Every structure is written in structure tokens, then in C-alpha cells.
Amino acid sequence: MLESEKSTMPRPIFTDPAYYTKAFNYSMSIGDNIEAVQKWTDEKFCGHVVEKLVANITDDKQLRVLGVGSGSGEIELFFLNKLLTKFPKIHTCVVEPSATLLETYQAKIKAHATNITFDWENHTLEGFVEKHHKNNHKYHFISAINSMYYVKDLNEALQSLYDMLVPGGILQVAITADFTGYGKLWRTFPDLGSETLSQDGSPESDSSSSHHRDSGYIHDSLRQLQIPYYTDDYTCNYKITKCFDEKESEEGNLALDFLTHTIGFRNAPKDLLQQVLACIKESCVQRGDQWFFQSRNVSFFITKT
Length: 305
Ligand SMILES: C[S@@+](CC[C@H](N)C(=O)[O-])C[C@H]1O[C@@H](n2cnc3c(N)ncnc32)[C@H](O)[C@@H]1O
What we know:
The chain is globular. Strand 1 (about 65-70), helix 4 (about 75-85) and strand 2 (about 90-95) form a beta-alpha-beta unit. It has helices spanning about 5, 15-30, 35-55, 75-85, 100-110, 125-130, 155-165, 180-190, 215-225, 250-260, 270-280; strands at about 65-70, 90-95, 115-120, 140-145, 165-175, 230-240, 285, 290-305. It contains 11 helices and 8 strands. It is α/β, with parallel strands linked by helices. It has one domain: Rossmann fold (3-Layer(aba) Sandwich), CATH 3.40.50.150.
């Protein structure tokens, strides 16, 4: 990327949590991520997690679950419903830094009374680890679904999560695959949404940084930590036709901003905008007059020895 382009790059999406939530929610609304993960949960989750926990956990009356970066809980609730089939009593701790998303999760629970009790922790993982450092709470199942993009130190985060498992407990970390969809876009344009490229050229704070992590980073980190794992994955499709429309629209801009992790990417230097749109198109399939961006989501499964 040219130096001249850096100074006019739109600012990172993480500098505005409300806009991040809006763009994230819009992206979810045009994608089949929820359907894809529900299908994957129905077909695979029991084999990867529930049956193994049944075999590994014999001495506890209540299953203890931790969700990290749970968002509004859609995906975690699929998992919890599967766990309920074998573990009638579950206590879940939900760690989520966005108060808005946490409230949405809480509203869902009220609407669907379950046999699950909850602790709500309006924190980042780092804040939660610091606050609960002395408690030494251990969990049977920990899920971090699409949240490891945002932790400051990946090795530290994965090691803390591993340390919070009981022996025989399972950690599931889900993240976008490298070299396809989001992974391909971010590896081709690593500076997109970076804190070093704010509009006024000044570095943003650490909390706003975007590392564009993908499954390759989790592989590397787990290898460095010498934590054994295996993976499984599924494909998601996002209808992003409006990103390619000549006429600008709020929907097209939200989709483009979430893909690029920036605010107002439409105003990026023209050459860069065209290169990025072309790269996005390479990961798309066309059905009729609609364009679907395809991305793979990889889950890492780790059992505490
Ligand atoms: C892409 S969303 C995924 C939400 C949900 N797990 C899902 O898959 O639908 C990422 C989530 O991670 C949360 N998050 C951001 N930084 C975090 C951090 N440092 N620790 C834990 N969660 C974080 C965000 O607030 C957001 O809810």
C-alpha cells in the first residue's frame, strides 16, 4: 500500500463500538451463518463435544460452561440446547464486552425459560481473566466463537482458556479460515482496518486494534503453546450484491465496512477500493443477479489432558 494512501484510509471499525455492532448485525442479516452453524451443530456438535464430555465428566452434578465474546448468544444457545440433552443442569458464564449484545442475549433467555443458570460478565476476556484471576474457576466446556480476532495477545488468551478447563474439559475456538473469504481478503490487504492507518494518521489505542486473525494464527499459537487440537469447519454465504452497486447505499456500505473492518471504506482511495472489491468478488459465487461472498469457519477442539 502506498504511503499516500495510508493517510486517507478510513478509520478502523473498532474505534466505534456502536457502528461495529450495527455493521455486524447487518452482516449477520445477509448471511446464512446462523443456518450453517445450526446445521453443523445438529450434525457435528454432539460428536465433537457432548459425547466426549459425557465420557470425560463423571463426578459433577452441574455442567459449568464459559462463553467468550458470546455476542447476542445465538450460537451459544444452539450448543447449550445440545448439552442440555445429556446434562440437565448447566451453569453458564457469559463474557461479552458489548453491553448492547449482552442485553439482547439476556432478553432471549427471558423469552425462553431454560434449565440453565447464567452469570453475566460485561467484560473483555482480558478483563474477565484479571477480575477472576484469584477465583480459579474451572469449566467443563468453553466456547470462543469468532471472538479471538479481538483479544490483544492470542497466546495469552488461548493459554488462559486452556487453564480454565477441568481435566477432560473441552475448548472450542471458532474463527474464519485462512486463504478463503475473509481470510483471503485480510491476508491480501493486511492493513485494512489497522489502527496504524487512522484517518488523521495517528495511531489508535490498543483496544481499537484489528489483527485480522484467521485460522492460521490459531494453528501457530496452539503449536507454540504445545496444546494438541484438531479442527472441523463449515461454509457460510453472505449476500453482498449491494457492495458492487454503482449507486451507494447504506446496506452496501455496512456490508463493505464489516468485510474491511473500517468505517466508510467507500471513501478509500479509488484504486484501493477497486482492488479490494475485486478481491472480494474472487471469493463470491454468482446466483442469478446476486453475489454471495463465501467464507469458511474453522473450529479448533482442544481437550484438557
Ligand atoms: C464477531 S462477534 C461474535 C459473536 C458471537 N460469538 C457469534 O459468533 O455470533 C465477536 C464478539 O467478540 C466480542 N469481543 C470483542 N473483543 C473481545 C475481547 N477482547 N474479549 C472477548 N470478547 C470480545 C465482541 O463484542 C463480539 O460480541
